[in-house]
Amino acid sequence: MERYHVTFPHIGNYCIPIETFFRNGLNTEYVIPPPVTRRTLELGSKYSPDYVCAPFKYCLGNYIESIEAGADTLVQTGGACRLGYYGELHEQILQDLGYKVRFVNVDMRGRLKAVNYYNAFKEINPEISVQQIAMILPTVFKMVECIDEAEDYIRRNIGFEKKQGIMNSLHEQYLQDFRGLDNVKAVREKHAAFMKNLQAVEIEKPSNPLKIGIIGEYYTIMEPFSNHFLEKELAEMGIVIDRWMNFTHSLLKKSKNKIRRSIRAYARYDMGATSMSTIAKALDYAKSGYDGIIHVKSFGCTPETDAIPVLLNIHKDYKIPILYLSFDTQTSETGIKTRLEAFYDMIIMIRKDKKQHERVSRT
Amino acid sequence: MKIGIPRAFLYYKYRHLWENFLDGLEIETVISPETNREILLRGTNVAIDETCLSSKIYLGHVDWLKDRCDAILIPRISGMGSAGTVCTKFQAIYDIVINTYRNDEIRIVHYNIDDGFSENEMLAFLKLGKALHKKKSQCMWAYLVAKQAQNAATLMEEKELQQLLDGSKDKMKFLMVAHRYNLFDRYLGEPVLDILKGMGIVPLIADYANSREALRRSENISKSLPWAFNKELVGSIDMLRDRVDGIVLMSTFPCGPDSLVHDVLIRRIKDKPILSLVLDDQESKAGLETRLESFVDIVTMRKKMHHLDGGFIWNDTM
What global pTM score does this model have? Predict the structure, then answer.
């Protein structure tokens, strides 16, 4: 029997666990979408409605490039915002363009999400066995957790490498090694070995480095191309970067009630999609003495723009600088760089002021 | 006590419910005036740049009301139950206003409809009444009366739509597909309606169609549509497309749901000419007139061709 060639849009480095899931859980081939480039975005925005958010355009670009690479079954999941309706329009656009592919859209309506997913999987491959899916899921989840843990460490330390580039090449190798693993034990072992290597990389970290927290919209924060490699840019300035938002925290270990309680003073109700964790993390960074916060989103993202009035109040209460970056298809590389540099200068100045202030008050 | 109601967003959907409920509780109400340049400016001053024009207008109305009443009514709705979800804006608007006006001592009264409990509108209103220190029995009575008034108004709207459909047989009819808060806003939709009426065209309000049937029939056009308000509009197209000459889609920049839904509609409805208008606060009246006039010309031409060729369908998208 011919195997289906399934694909799912890029988001960060999660294509590897996703590939494992489709290959080992659903018995299909998986086409990893070609890396996101300028062309991806251009293809996507050419056929998308004008003022739809940028992630829609990236996903569409991914689909077209994946079809070119041999995919015949495209998958889209839903979400709490506009994302919930992405799939149907993606399918329509691709159909209008004349691509003969199957499009499987996980229907997010109704309360029983697991049933919706099962139905979608059944559509992807009618001969699936629940047992096989259940067998691979722990491995997939473990992979996600490991990738997130590793990237967390890298974000905090990559700006201080003695010899630049080692962490990156280790990381690339690590992701490659993950492909093809099919049990939790192997993943855990590989991860432990990698973390050991990673921690052995020599770093020169000042005792009290600049710290910046990144918050914002789900896709733009996790897909480096769509935020113009913001994290890399910051690391090069020698900054410790923290980002809470990842698959582990948003999908595997949800803590919605805890988050809501923690920001009760600022928001009484759930403001939709990722806005709650954005606010909660901003508050967290402010309280734990970070030097600044960067808020990233795609242009027009409703839940994230709605969170801004709250962030402005957090800024007022804790005097923590917040930089608001909004990305769309036209955002210029230089513009972002200039703003980041200005932000960097500002937080350094605030640091110096604080030090002086402390000295004065001591004497 | 005087409660202010912003004339924006859901006011256009629930005005009878709100006004009659507060009236039944013997509470005086102030409703902000029709949107004007001043209100829009107030809104753009306090709102975040990137939010949609409709929500800027909403904040403009809140801003106008803040010194003119004792409390402002700002409901929070996070879903319409089985009908579908709503744009996250309606979920967030209560906290947006609270955070925007944190330093001005304004009082806000609200009712909250959570997604899981959306069928319990009554409970939400009883809670609102309690917060206003009214007796439960009075609140219950006021709610039931208000609900009746709202239902009656909805019936009248359906009737009006039917009359327009039946009564203006030889006039050109356009289906106006837009959220009420855009279509009936003095600053946004009303100029469009006026221009069309001035050209002798009958604009039909899509949202007047029976909402239960519209919700059901929206699946004929789009299956996975999550937003209830958009489903009602899309369903009404399925109900009325055969009886109109053209369809006008209207949204405000950059409306999240409309950005996707309108593209789906343009791609799927091939038998009627569609005009898609996106309004922003820069729109000049002359530009709007030109676009509407040329659309009317196209529809007229198409009608003539259809007439001459006896059933020829000019399958072209606008």
Answer: 0.91
CB-nearest partner of A266 from B99, B226, B261: B99
Among candidates A92, A267, A273 on the partner chain, residue whose Cβ is nearest the Cβ of B267: A92
**Can you read off the two tokens belonging to residue B273?**
């000419």
Pairing of strands B202-205, B173-177: parallel
Task: Render pLDDT for A74-121 as a digit per residue (tens, 0 to 9).
Answer: 998 877 788 888 999 999 999 999 999 999 888 766 666 778 888 888
Contact B203, B193 (CB under 8 A): yes
Going by C-alpha positions, the residue among A245, A243, A283 that lies closest to residue A261 is A283
Question: Residue type at B144?
Answer: L
Q: A251: which 2 tokens?
A: 């999908």
Q: Which of A265, A15, A309 is nearest to A147 (CA)?
A: A15
Residues in chain B closer than 8 A to A299 (CB atoms): 50, 254
User: Are A85 and B224 within 8 A, CB to CB?
Assistant: yes
Q: How crowded is the C-beta side of B262, counted as CA atoms within 13 Å?
A: 27
Q: Which residue, A180, A177, A179, A159, is CA-closest to A168?
A: A159
Residues paired with B252 in a beta bridge: B279
Residue with tokens 């219950």: B140
Instruction: Say which residue the tokens 């029995």 belong to.
Output: B137
Nearest in space to A147 (alpha carbons), one of A20, A262, A265, A233: A20
DSSP, collapsed to helix, strand or coil, labels residue A134 as helix
